[in-house]
Amino acid sequence: MAEIIDGNKIGEQIRAEVAKGVEELKNSKGVTPGLAVIIAGDDPASKVYVRNKQKACEKLGIYSEEHALPGDVSEEKLLSVIDELNENPKIHGILVQLPLPKQINPDKVLNRVSPEKDVDGFHPINVGKLMVGADTFVPCTPQGIMALLEYTGVEIAGKEAVIVGRSNLVGKPILQLLLQKNATVTVCHSKTNDLSSHTKGADILVAAVGSPQLINGEMVKEGVTIIDVGVNRVDNKLVGDVDFESVKDKAARITPVPGGVGPMTIAMLMKNVLKAAKQSVS
Question: Could you tell me the domains of the chain?
Fold first, then answer.
């Protein structure tokens, strides 16, 4: 039976470190890290995410504010809110909750956030820095995946890592992070022929494609470490991109869904807000 990689437990450790860092920054520089979240429209899942982010801030002593805009908000109005927050010294991190209403171009919006306040790591400048291995804001989910591997003591250098999914949010950044740790990385996607011929070779498998239980026990080798990023609702139950039951006896380690990658994403967001606040006074 695979060892369960407990994202709640590891996330708590990281939050405790962040809380300590927040306290130190307040005491040494008189600065309270601040996060502004912008949400447009009434998407119920987005509202839950925003609430969870605000709760996390509160717990760790981070100042937070929410800018809730109507679903029919103009692009111009949304951009003007970002401009104000870019200039606001109390705010060190700006997060625009996706998805945005259809009349708004998400690229234009994400590019408007100052790279120094881009705690999601989505601005092209920060993406470019990640690409060349410079210090930057790393997107929260990929950063969380790396922390799970690190805290669990998974050896990365020289290992075969296979990523299923090539999104800008997870697939592409995790490719860079694993490469930087000297893994040999293969990226698979919807046009990949014979997916299992790739996944069977993986020492580390990251499934981030949003397809319920796509990866099963026949597609992995003994002793693999599986990071399941997928969150899919099937018959009112949350399942990952990996068929947990069929792989659990072959894998050495696996993240559950829920309780694996999810808690790490918010922990890493808090870490990025603290980092932005520290950089603002360094």
Answer: 29-115 (3.40.50.10860), 140-262 (3.40.50.720)
